[in-house]
Amino acid sequence: MSEKKRKRTSQDAGGRPHKKTALDSMPAEVVKVSFLPEEDEWAPIVASTPGLSFPSDLAMKPYKKPRKHNNASTGKSPIVVSEHLLHTSAHSKIDYVGKEEEAGEAEGLLKHYIGIYDEQSGLLDAVRARRIVVRGTLRPVETGTAEETEKPQGLSAKSSLGLGFGSKKSQRAIQSFTKNAITPSKHGRTSPGSSQVTLDPVASAIVSSMATATSSMLSREDLQAAADESKPRPKPNLTTETLADVYPIEQLVGPGILRQMTVKEWQDAAESGEDILTKSRFVSHRILNIISSGDVRRIKTLKYLLLLLEWHGALVPAGKSGRQVPEYEKLRDKLGSWGSELVRQVSERFAEGGKVVNRWHLDNLITHICALVITIDNFTSDVYDIKEDLRLENKDIRKYFKEIGARVGNPTEPERIKMKISKVEVAGHQLAKLRLPLEFPKIRVPTAKRK
Asked: What's this model's pTM, rounded to 2 decimal places?
């Protein structure tokens, strides 16, 4: 090649340097450090309480003993020669013991220092400190006979037999299962004929510490309320006593959209006896009855539901993100008769950024459709038609209706006769009923599995 490559400079214009620059902006203050001699046996203590809430009002008594495997103590530091121990039994149920960590344990080879800094003179006096870890152990309590002590409480008859006559493997499994069980004490009854049972001191200490640790945790009701607030569904009015006010039409449709809906074409076609063809089974099976009722607001609600169903059918797959709104030209070909403004409002409401329809937005769209369906059908609806429009399975459409608080089940015999379906068709024609109070799905609390 005739042209020579230009070498890359150490720093491009406006770019970052390739080498670290010296920190010239650091202050030039000099701190003088002096280590005090380790002559006093009672050196300062750096204590930690891993996984333990240590009461601040307890005083601990210090003890001292020579360290193990200490050969030559001449000239060595008192911290190296002797070992300190802290202990207190002032607590009613727990003994607290503080020990120094030996070599081989976590942080056993580290040296810890405590320093005092004088800003005026710039001198830092440091002295070596002892590193002590404080742990708590439950104080043993007196129990019954030796046989009762060895046998775990709360065993069934089958487990008792396995503990007495089973193999070593089965005995270990039973003992492991009952080792951490918190059971009422046999000696905790207030009187021989009383049914009130209290916990023994060991279990009481555990429960009291658990109450302190879990005091700030949310209750099941708080978790349920937070889950209901974040679910993709229309917000119900839980304080009303009228079904029509649980999901108001204005909330389901949106402000101002009903005024943009024109239904005169439908009304004229119905008066002249013409067939009104739609792309929805649900709408086609109800349109003539609703138009004949003369309720214009209900007719507009039905037409808005048709718009949502056609918009749902126009969505295209988008890989892991779920679905998405097609390009403007393709969307105009499918929904051009609705007008661009109505389609834009639906896209902005049920798609992220008017384009992406992820799982949350899709569930939000379908639950709004289910709320419109059950409102149009006067709060009792056969789910078969809307299931076919949305191309869902029976279990999925049941789940969506339950998410809005409806009760879904098979029709009774009088309802089956009124619906004009056979007994074989009952399984596919389930009824969704909106009744007060609403029944929403409860959150599942995971439970510990048995080993």
From this structure: 0.55
- The gap between the terminal CA atoms of the chain, to the nearest Å, is 73
CA–CA distance, 134 with 437 (Å, rounded to integer): 54
Instruction: Supply the Cα-derived Rg of the chain in whole angstroms.
Output: 38
pLDDT average per 10 residues of sequence, the chain (451 residues): 50 51 54 81 81 79 79 64 85 84 65 86 87 83 52 62 79 75 52 56 67 68 72 91 92 86 92 91 94 93 95 88 86 88 92 90 95 95 95 94 94 91 87 92 62 45
User: Do the beta carbons of residue 135 and residue 199 sit within 8 Å?
Assistant: no
| DSSP letter, residue 385 | H
Structure tokens of 192? 């021989």
Identify whether the C-beta of residue 49 lies closer than 8 Å to the C-beta of residue 94.
no
List the structure tokens of 357. 């329809």
CB neighbour burial string for 116-142, b if at least 16 within 10 angstroms, e if fewer: eeeeeeeeeeebbbbbbbbbbeeeeee
Dist. CA 166–CA 160, nearest whole Å? 9
Pure H helices in 261-324: 264-271, 281-284, 287-293, 296-314
Cα angle, residue 134 at apex, residues 74 and 99 outer, rounded to 5°: 25
Which residue(s) pair with 148 in the sheet? none
How is 212-255 classified by DSSP, letter by letter? HHTTTSPPHHHHHHHHHHHSSSPPP-TT-SSGGGTS-HHHHH-T
Q: How far is CA 114 from CA 35, 50, 57, 219, in A?
A: 10, 20, 24, 43
The pair of three-digit structure tokens given for residue 224, joined into one six-digit string = 């349920």
**378 Rama sector, left if φ>0, alpha if ψ -120 to 50, beta otherwise:** left
